[in-house]
């Protein structure tokens, strides 16, 4: 059955590829000769639903900024997930050159590139601040690009969700024993760790989450953070809202560009894309923080939401199981091990500095408020 589904998916993708490359009113790239009036038209696909706040909106803003910064020389048409290709075919479409750009998150391709998860998020990993520092100035982006070379794709950081919430639950979690047998929508490495804790991870698309929680098909779900959770109405389907989001402490969103398309650009347009990506990375991250702060206040004031912290023993067990999960995968995958070691080495230096800088400062504020 799994083999048949893969064959169907592959067949569908190549049909899409043929359709995109067929003659039509909008060719993949249109060039008007001349050094000053060259116009290049690109397509960009995302993994997000149409109109999805912050993420899809940010991808569209990024494209508009590039057109403005380039004086109209590079024009990018953005398609939401499903408008041109299925959302999770984004990486393949960019890799094959069916489209020029894509926007999503690297852990979506974990089945194909397990090490890619380190360039998105891992349980109990670095926050957005640490990830940006590692990627831009700690060698992370260089390694990320090396790993994507065989796939004909050039990655850039383009947004971050920040520390996510731990999820919505229909029962209190008072000890690690309460996780056993719990049906929770939680994907990726977080799902593997949750399974080791005795839970039952369930994979569901975002559109199915609310109904499954409301009808008790699942006992709990993680989604993103207060702003998006509130928009999905999860506060009407569950009473207990837990923090912190141990499974996604700083999820990096990625821009991917087809390598041949990237190399075909003049240097000034390459620079514009790079700078626009950095600007949108900051904008999207800032917007997430502002909207989450407002939404959390509304959830606490206007609904029956009970905001609760995970008990220390629960977090301690999940952290031990995360270490075990990462070590097991590193033992089976040399590339995963190489990235894991680089990530860990940088994090140790970063954490040592954080301990006597930002964290030490936060502790002084906490002591004043006691």
Concise summary:
The protein has 370 residues and is of the alpha/beta class. It has 13 helices and eleven strands.
Write a structural description.
The protein has 370 residues and is of the alpha/beta class. The chain has a domain at 12-160 and 250-290: 3-Layer(aba) Sandwich (D-Maltodextrin-Binding Protein, domain 2). 50% of the residues lie in helices and 14% in strands. It contains 13 helices and 11 strands. The protein has helices spanning 2-21, 55-69, 90-96, 128-137, 140-148, 188-196, 206-214, 226-232, 259-264, 267-302, 312-332, 334-356, 358-369; strands at 40-46, 74-79, 101-104, 153-160, 167-169, 183-185, 200-202, 220-221, 240-243, 252-258, 306-309. The strands form 2 sheets. Strands 7-6-8-5-9-11 form a 6-stranded mixed beta sheet. β6, α6 and β7 (200-202) form a beta-alpha-beta unit. The radius of gyration is 21 Å and the shape is globular. The chain starts with a helix and ends with a helix. Residues 1-34 have low confidence and may be disordered. One of its GO terms (cellular component) is tripartite ATP-independent periplasmic transporter complex. Na(+) binds at residue 223. GO terms for molecular function: metal ion binding. Substrate binds at residues 164, 185, 222, 248.
Q: Mind sketching the topology for me?
A:
Elements: H1 2-21, E1 40-46, H2 55-69, E2 74-79, H3 90-96, E3 101-104, H4 128-137, H5 140-148, E4 153-160, E5 167-169, E6 183-185, H6 188-196, E7 200-202, H7 206-214, E8 220-221, H8 226-232, E9 240-243, E10 252-258, H9 259-264, H10 267-302, E11 306-309, H11 312-332, H12 334-356, H13 358-369
Parallel strand pairs: 1-2, 1-3, 6-7, 6-8, 9-11
Antiparallel strand pairs: 3-10, 4-10, 5-8, 5-9
Helix pairs in contact: 2-10, 4-5, 6-11, 8-10, 11-12, 12-13
């Amino acid at each position: 059955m799994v083999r048949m589904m893969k064959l169907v998916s592959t067949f569908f993708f190549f049909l899409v590829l043929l359709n995109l490359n067929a003659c039509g009113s909008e060719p993949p790239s249109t060039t008007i000769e001349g050094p000053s009036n060259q116009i290049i038209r690109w397509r960009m696909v995302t993994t997000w639903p149409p109109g999805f706040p912050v993420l899809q909106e940010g991808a569209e803003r990024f494209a508009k900024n590039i057109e403005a910064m380039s004086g109209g020389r590079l024009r990018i048409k953005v398609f939401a997930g499903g408008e041109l290709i299925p959302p999770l075919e984004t990486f393949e479409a960019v890799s094959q050159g069916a489209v020029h750009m894509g926007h999503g998150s690297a852990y979506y391709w974990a089945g194909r590139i397990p090490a890619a998860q380190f360039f998105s998020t891992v349980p109990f990993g670095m926050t957005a601040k640490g990830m940006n520092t590692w990627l831009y100035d700690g060698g992370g982006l260089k390694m990320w690009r090396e790993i994507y070379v065989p796939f004909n794709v050039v990655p850039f950081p383009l947004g971050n969700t920040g520390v996510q919430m731990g999820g919505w639950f229909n029962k209190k979690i008072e000890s690690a024993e309460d996780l056993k047998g719990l049906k929770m929508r939680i994907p990726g490495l977080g799902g593997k760790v949750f399974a080791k804790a005795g839970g039952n991870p369930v994979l569901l698309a975002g559109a199915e989450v609310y109904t499954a929680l409301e009808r008790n098909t699942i006992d709990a779900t993680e989604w993103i953070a207060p702003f998006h959770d509130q928009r999905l109405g999860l506060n009407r389907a569950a009473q207990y809202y837990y923090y912190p989001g141990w499974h996604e402490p700083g999820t990096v969103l990625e821009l991917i560009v087809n390598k041949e398309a990237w190399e075909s650009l003049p240097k000034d347009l390459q620079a514009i894309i790079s700078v626009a990506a950095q600007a949108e990375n900051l904008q999207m991250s800032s917007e997430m923080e502002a909207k989450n702060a407002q939404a959390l206040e509304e959830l606490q004031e206007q609904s029956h939401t009970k905001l609760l912290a995970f008990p220390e023993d629960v977090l301690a067990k999940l952290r031990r199981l995360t270490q075990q999960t990462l070590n097991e995968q590193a033992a089976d995958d040399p590339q995963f091990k190489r990235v894991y070691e680089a990530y860990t080495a940088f994090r140790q230096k970063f954490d040592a500095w954080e301990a006597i800088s930002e964290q030490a400062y936060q502790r002084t504020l906490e002591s004043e408020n006691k």
